[in-house]
Structures
1.
Amino acid sequence: MAQLSIRSVSKSYGAVQVLDDVSVEVEEGSFVVLLGPSGCGKSTLLHAIAGLNPIDSGTIVIGDRNVTKLPARDRDVAMVFQSYALYPTMTVAQNIAFPLKMRGLDRRTSDEKVAGVARLLQIEPLMSRLPRELSGGQRQRVAIGRALVRDPRLFLFDEPLSNLDAALRTELRAEIKRLHQSIRRTMVYVTHDQTEALTLADKIVVLKAGKIEQTGTPLSLYDDPDNAFVAGFIGTPRMNFLKATVADDGKALLAGEARVDITHLATRLENGRAVTLGIRPEHLDEKDGVTLSLSVDVTEHLGSTSYVHGALASGESVVAERREDQPGFGETITLRFQSTRARVFDGEGSRIR
Amino acid sequence: MSTVATASDPTRHFFQPVIVCLTVASVALTLFVIWISLHDLSLMRAGREKFIGLDNYLRFLGDPRAMAALWRTVLFTTLATVIEIALGLAVVLFLDRDFAMKRLVRTLLLVPIIMTPVVVGLTWRFLFDPATGMANYLLSLVGIAQVDWLGSPRIALFAVLIADIWQWTPFVILLVMAALESAPTDPLNAARVDGAREWQVTWYVLLPMLRRALAIVALIRAIDSIKAFDLFYIMTRGGPALSTETLNYYGYIVAFTNFDISYSLAVAIILTIFTNVALLTMYSVLFPKTGDR
Ligand SMILES: Nc1ncnc2c1ncn2[C@@H]1O[C@H](COP(=O)(O)OP(=O)(O)OP(=O)(O)O)[C@@H](O)[C@H]1O
Ligand SMILES: [Mg+2]
């Protein structure tokens, strides 16, 4: 049974449609990531789930209760805000105890719970400090602690790691993952960082301009994207998109250069149709397959591997992974890929399967 | 500035003389005032003053009119500050963050603050006129008997208080509104998610965030109320039967009606000391050393 159902939710600020017919089902105990570029409506959706801003139409069901009209305090969700949103005039201990106080828990039980959370998050030495006396990572953990102390039906995280440095971000990402595995609570997590999305999620919802582009497991979004936006958004470096035309034998002709066999697709493509082929950089370093020649501009060395940036004869720029050698500026190298690795998109960017 | 300015900092040539001049001027003036207050300088007996020590101060303690004026000052200051802060805060919380004609309202709020006290005083005198004033007309509409606002010793002080509240509550509203707008909204939302009702959000989260701003506004209003003079001068001249005579006003009467300059300055110094003690106490209560707690 779904723990959280978002059904056809729409919301606009004046003329701007921020959420457009969004529907998401979240299974009990799962970790769902809302992913999308800045301004696509992720925070708005999360605030709508929490009950912090009213939606124009649609239904939100948590557990088996329709909460669409309920105020935030009756929804039994805990939220970690993008800005931490700690209570500036309360100490760390008072911050974490606040939700318990609002629920009228007695002092003893409350103190025990707060101490337990503090131990889990290793913030015990900070308990009597004020938020402004803490570092960003410490504030972050206090904000998470304030959510964890409650044991709610649903956890909402709004880009909780966005303000942290890379090391701390990786550390806290792992901490959140561990936490989810140990308490097995439903979590909805907003980010525009796709590494976070891929490492944390059971399910990813990709949003663009208030619309859901695709919903699926990290692997299915990576392997089997529904459209060029998702294909380009998931994976670093970005997928390469190459213009092609369908030839009379059903193969795709890549800007006059190579022929890619796409006859395995279920759809029969008519002769002369313009399509786009998407090929990931990591699939361009095979032993055999379709060949392309790339004149190299820059090579990025990342230790175990390198990424070559360059241009094809057609002028289209391409990024390719290179494991064996590290070609320099001006060299021309041969890229090889399996034609089954190519994803085919039509003129509007929709996937052709 | 002064913490970074070392002996070699050339900018000290600009600010040090200014500081020295200001310090010398205020210290010299204060000492001069204290010196005169230890004499019996009076314009009625010009040229025959002599040193009388603390006599003027002892006279103050035994002067029932002065003690009554002091008590009235305390009453007026406390009521004005408390009511203006409470009323201003209530209005701000009621108006909340965004509403349609906010800019218009904000502009209108400036009107009483900009008006000169003379105009405010005269306007309220007309409003409080027992026969033709608006105040009694409004009371008559709800069936309450006529009140002699400025003519009754028991009511006059409160009539002035009403005028003061009318003039200065908007000031409180403007400052608190600004503080509210610059306060972050996310903690309020966090409290809602954490299960707080709206009054709990206000009480536990919003008001503590506004405390500093409120404390500063309260200090400003308290200082102004202690020194209030113009409204009293225009509306009641301390009357009827001295019922609106504050210490500040009494000092003025002593100096300019009785020409008892030394005693008047002693009153002024007592008022200054009293004000400082009261405000320092208030300050240490509002801004505890430990920070925000
Ligand atoms: N109060 C508001 N009034 C008008 N427009 C708003 C308001 N809040 C958000 N928007 C608009 O709604 C859109 C979605 O905002 P939202 O905060 O949900 O984006 P987001 O996906 O969380 O972005 P980010 O990744 O930058 O946090 C944006 O285009 C934003 O400009
Ligand atoms: Mg956001």
Note: The domain at 54-286 of chain B is CATH 1.10.3720.10 (MetI-like fold).
2.
Amino acid sequence: MQYRRTFRASLFGSFGIPALFLTAMGLGLGGYVDRSADAVLQGVSYLQFLAPGLLASSVMQTGSFEATFPILGGLQWNKIFHAMVATPLRARDVAIGNILWIALRLTLVGSIFALVIVAFGASRSPLIVLAVPVAVLTGLAFATPIMAFTATQRTPDRFAALFRFGTTPLFLFSGTFFPIESLPSFLQPVAWLSPLWHGVAVCRALMLGTIGNEPVLAVIHIGILAAIATVGAVLAVRTIDGRLVKG
Amino acid sequence: MTALRITPMFAFGSRRALRMVERNLLVYKHQWLGLLSGFFEPFFYLLSIGFGLGRLVGDVAGPGGQTIPYALFVAPALLAASAMNGAVVESTFNFFFKLNYDKTFASILTTPMSPADISLGELAWALMRGAIYTVGFLGVMVVFGLVRSPLILLTVPGALLIGFAFATVGMAATSFMRTWQDFDLIQLVILPLFLFSGTFFPIDAMPEGVRLLIQLTPLYHGVDLLRTLSVGVVGPDTLVHVAYLTVMGLLGLAVVSRRLDKLLLK
Amino acid sequence: MDDAAPLILARHLTKRFGAFTAVDGVDFEVAPGEAFGFLGPNGAGKTSTMRMIGCTSPISDGELTILGMDPRRQGADIRARLGVVPQHDTLDNELTVRENLIIYGRYFGLPRAECQRRADELLEFVQLSDRGKDLVEPLSGGMKRRLTIARSLINEPDVMLLDEPTTGLDPQARHLVWDRLYRLKQRGVTLVLTTHYMDEAEQLCDRLVVMDKAKIVAEGSPRQLIERYSTKEVAEFRFPAGVQETLDGQFDGLGDRIERLPDRVLAYADDGEAVVIAARDRGLHPETVLVRRSTLEDVFLRLTGRSLIE
Ligand SMILES: Nc1ncnc2c1ncn2[C@@H]1O[C@H](COP(=O)(O)OP(=O)(O)O)[C@@H](O)[C@H]1O
Ligand SMILES: [Mg+2]
């Protein structure tokens, strides 16, 4: 409960947090980057480089969060999901309903973030409109497998470790803040394992207007994300079903 | 005058507060992995922001005008920010939750332990845990060659001071909170502090007015304190930082000591 | 302290939560060595009263003296001599069974070695010695309750406050708890307990007060209360569905008093058999008939017009 409140999208949270991050990291720190790293970013300002990364990451973080405490709350604490399956709703309806609800939340979070980005002039291409659904897909690629995991838990004890060793490192090393080419070369292939990296790559290509350069790669990225989200959704439906039927 | 009635920490609570530390040590005997994992977050940030992003940034102006690598610039700031975050989370959300909802703490209140004992004990534990993380982080800095001066050892008490200042003010703020929604305000304060206190880039780049404003806020003093200590360039500024944080912590304590009991026993 | 002086003395004790009054000016006293009970339905104000005695809830009005001390100023000193078993278990789930006892003793400022010695002794007393190294969570409800009782004894309290000690336990677990409480009483520990089970009150309490809607409605030993407010025996009549409503007036004059409950009719009399025979003579044909002794349940029904457990 405590966590949910703090993350709840207040007006400040929805518009303010993106604006603060873009100002501090994009403009403030970006000033220093632009002075020295032109060669790496190839004429793109750091603000423009960072914006798509933050868009995908923040949707990803919302998705991860929504798949933990609120879901466990429904299953374990207020048993609201159990009450639902006592009605004609089936367990899989409950699971799918939750996934759709999260998708809706992510669309809202992503759209607001995109609006702020446009206000900062941080997108080069109108294709940012397409970056929002890609970010949502990225968020779902995290939310659905995590939801399946949540359905196997009785306490929130393991969530801290999940965030600490899962989402936080992915947030930091998936090309959000710097191109993965800056990582030691042996680490670069590892980025392929990060769903966030795929999402960031496509969002960035869309917002910089370079999507046309490597369309096949973009399709592969999206295919991987869709595959993860689908497998996750199937697992989530199964585990929630098992949990609600067993009680 | 409030300032004259400041009760020293050990007189406000009592030695019983140490029992809370004892309890936490027992708990962490079973959950040492959780304790250990808390150390990784600043470490990941250092790797990503300090070294990954640092390659794009290059060198920046450090304390005393000398040019230093970005990783060395940002590492002490991450330390200061994590001292602030740890203290704020512990003294606001966790503190409110424990004393109002957590059954374990309700049961401790049926013993001679007072709310002040419990809160001070938990605070002491949070600071100790923070100190352990600080030492771990310093170890990482040594490994990555980010050490310029033996004064860096003073960042351990420095980080403790930051934790103390934010924790007492956090508790004082919590004593005015009515509902969970009120805690959103804390986010509203903490995030700008985290981003704009000279944490990730020197504040020299800011317009004059903004810069002066930032110099009035606490995390700026914490960040600059730890940065001057790590780089080994101490001066009158260092004393100002220490004084600022000390006064802040004592003011927080003065408010808390007056409000706690009334507030927490229903 | 003077032995005759009450251990707990409450005068016009009141607890308000905002505009709502949970305990409304009650008076009672508890003597040393006594087992004293608060009997009442859910919401009567028992827990609120216990928490004030336990010095974890400030009193709103009236006076309260515990062990000769004032809870407003000497809360910690009073708590040092109480053993509290709260209504809902508040065990430390992050610790083992034995650690729960040891750390609790530490909160009272006992030396570590002494805590360990008492912990082992108390685990023996509540028959949990073989579970000492286990975490609390997998224990059954009855085991947790016994552990909570053991925990409340770690400081060798003068007074134990037990809030619904056996609610939610199965009959076997209840009897085990009762047995332990009975032994404590024999050792001279003063017991203050709340319950909504009349059998528990009858088993354990020397004296009790009946609470309803924030007030005390009667006071005495279980036997006195029954004598005062009920007859020696009760005849219970059950009728087939729908029949009872048609029997208006037909019970009048059977026994000293008649209570009509939704599912049965109770006739109070000192000779229950005689009432049953008289009913048969009037041509009443109940499905089942039961003659039993009066209990505190009947006292409560008489005083409030309602059952203890709805
Ligand atoms: N902290 C509280 N705030 C508001 N109302 C309360 C609080 N605690 C108890 N009450 C109310 O006081 C009344 C008496 O409660 P309680 O003392 O728990 O009764 P009992 O223990 O006899 O069931 C109930 O109506 C309950 O809702
Ligand atoms: Mg109660």
Note: The two ends of chain A are 22 Å apart (CA to CA).
